[in-house]
TrEMBL record:
<feature type="domain" description="SGNH hydrolase-type esterase">
    <location>
        <begin position="6"/>
        <end position="178"/>
    </location>
</feature>
<protein>
    <submittedName>
        <fullName>SGNH/GDSL hydrolase family protein</fullName>
    </submittedName>
</protein>
<dbReference type="GO" id="GO:0016787">
    <property type="term" value="F:hydrolase activity"/>
</dbReference>
<dbReference type="InterPro" id="IPR013830">
    <property type="entry name" value="SGNH_hydro"/>
</dbReference>
<dbReference type="Pfam" id="PF13472">
    <property type="entry name" value="Lipase_GDSL_2"/>
</dbReference>
<dbReference type="InterPro" id="IPR053140">
    <property type="entry name" value="GDSL_Rv0518-like"/>
</dbReference>
<dbReference type="InterPro" id="IPR036514">
    <property type="entry name" value="SGNH_hydro_sf"/>
</dbReference>
<keyword id="KW-0378">Hydrolase</keyword>
Length: 256
């Protein structure tokens, strides 16, 4: 029997992939269904989690499970915060993957997409966010090499519009299926047992344009207001620094 522990934030929780009867499914559940029969799946992910949250709360629970397979898909929320420090976050991620590997788990990791491109932000904000994500992805790539994780690149394949839900923050069902399919394919290539590759086509009804507009009017604006207390000031600071960097006159020193 394979015991699979999924660590992460709202993406791994399944947000963006609603089930007709209520609740969320998501890429990790889709992947678990594609693994050999009897797989014991534990989704430990929590919406809004940052790398420190996963290290402090989810990792101990995962280690107690002694999983044969564990996924660590985290970091997007950290790039949107004012205290972002790739060195500190890198140490935390490294310790997390090292601990899971030491207990015998095969660890799934991924290069993450650029939030500036996902949200369609103006260049003055998108560029510094892109640099943050590039720094985090460099850390993730190094961890993948050091600990021989099953590592997939989501940075280039995830930007198609139908892969994202109406909030542009969480994958749609198609996006979750893309993640599950990518990890299943990587597991097969690494020699791990997978019964089948998850399908890429959405099986549940996709929201209409009217439903998307209604969601944004009734829920999306409230989400934006809640996040504005910490997200928008950080974006404003990043934009100001970017503007100063690009408009600062160059001083030429002339010597005799």
């Amino acid at each position: 029997m394979i015991r699979f522990a999924a660590l992460g934030d709202s993406v791994t929780s399944g947000y963006g992939d609603p089930m007709p009867g209520g609740g969320w499914r998501g890429w990790a559940a889709l992947l678990a269904d594609a693994l050999p029969a009897g797989t014991d799946f534990h989704n430990l992910a929590v919406s809004g989690a940052r790398i420190g949250d996963v290290a402090e709360r989810q990792l101990p629970a995962a280690l107690d499970l002694r999983p044969q397979l564990a996924s660590v898909l985290i970091g997007m929320n950290d790039t949107l915060r004012g205290d972002f420090d790739p060195r500190v976050l890198g140490h935390s991620l490294t310790d997390m993957v090292a601990a899971l590997s030491a207990c015998g788990a095969t660890v799934l990791t991924a290069r993450l997409p650029d939030p500036g491109r996902m949200f369609g932000l103006p260049g003055v904000i998108a560029r510094p966010l892109g640099r943050r994500m590039a720094a985090l992805n460099e850390v993730l790539d190094e961890i993948a090499v050091t600990y021989e994780t099953v590592h997939v690149d989501l940075a280039d394949a995830a930007y198609a519009r139908n892969n994202w839900s109406v909030d542009r923050l969480h994958p749609s069902e198609r996006g979750h299926r893309l993640l599950a399919h990518s990890f299943a394919t990587a597991l097969v290539e690494a020699g791990h047992p997978v019964d089948r590759l998850p399908g890429l086509d959405a099986m549940n009804p996709e929201p209409s344009i009217g439903e998307r507009v209604w969601w944004m009017a009734t829920k999306g604006n409230r989400w934006l207001l809640r996040r504005s207390t910490d997200l928008l000031p950080t974006l404003a600071q990043l934009a100001a620094r970017e503007w100063l960097t690009t408009t600062q006159p160059t001083t030429v020193r002339v010597t005799d």
